[in-house]
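New to this. Comment on this protein:
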Amino acid sequence: MFYCEILSGLWISDIDVMYSKEFLKDNHIDIIMNCTIHYNFPEIDIEKHRLPFSEMMNERDIQMIQDNIDKIVHFINEEIETKNILLCCYNGKSISPLLVALYMKKFSTLSTKNIIESLKTKHSDINLPIDLDIIL
């Protein structure tokens, strides 16, 4: 299982963590954002949102991000003050951190380089599947 708290109350993880009721309870997760196409949500009473990304980032996924990025990052920004959010994807090290990076790019003064460096300090295996500047 892979998980990491990137910002206070904003977690990324692989798909297995989403099914860990103990993790969700221990970390007071209020919202799950499932960034997969194929995995169902756990059967628990929690707010759930699906962002249907392919396992290997493709053109459709990039277009989906471009079309919905404002909605996604504004949702995170509105909820993060009072709720803990888990963004989970297949391995937890690419799509989920990409969305966090885009959130940080939108709502912080950090450069793209500093955002990527910041994510790498949380876990060295984080690897963004596309260039942030392509999206925003």
The chain has a mean pLDDT of 95. The beta strands are 3-7, 10-13, 29-34, 47-50, 84-88. The radius of gyration is 14 Å.
